[in-house]
Here is the input.
Amino acid sequence: MILIEQFKNFASRIYMPRIGVGDVFEILLLAALVYVFIAWIKRTRAYMLLRGILIVAVFILLAWIFQFSTILWILEQLGSVALISLVVIFGPELRKALESLGNSNYFFGMLSFGGSGERTERFPDTVLNDIVSAVSDMSEVKTGALIVIEQNILLNEYVDTGIRLDSLISRQLLVNIFEHNTPLHDGAVIIRGDRIIAATCYLPLSENVSISKRFGTRHRAGLGISEVSDSFTIIVSEETGKISCAYMGELSTLTAGSLREQLHYVQNDTIKDRNDRKFRIWKRREEA
Here is the structure.
């Protein structure tokens, strides 16, 4: 009985706030944001930096518990610049996070009104067939290739790193560009509409630490450009001849038939198609 009375006295002193529907929604929203943040940061170099910051935080906590006055004074003097230091340290990661948020089409799809579902064909069927044929030919003979198809976000800064061509797309031209020991084979080809804008372009390498070690620089470059733009990138492995595609930060292996299907979505691009294509690519990646 005494234990029960003590428990009742303890329970009576506990403050239990009233929780409404809005509070539950707010908790779920915060939990989702924290989960997305943790999932994102684990794929970047910021994860190791965050672990280092947590170690420093534990050190500060121990200094406060044991009242190490000298250490606490030093930390107090450095506290004014700590926030600025964090912004400088996490600057590249914060920039990529904001770019990913800006490139997201889900919110814009929900906020668009009227006419957003109209299809705008980016290139004719002849171009689609030439790309598929060229990629298939290069896959058979294990010729490495990196083809970036520009969509809504212009890739002018990467076009400037290469050699401008501004030529019509053809199977023979694509195969010849990536042929071994030719002047234009090293780097990426950027396609805009029905034209090859430039070749030998340099692309940003992905810093995603979860990428399999079997993928080399060509795959990391294809994934990297898909993380900073809405481009659709085709990669042919020089070692295995396998065809891969990178889109919205996801990498998947394709066959010639599935490549044609994905290019069809690129050809008739809408916000709805784009989101559906990401789901299809992700599903194929999970099955692989």
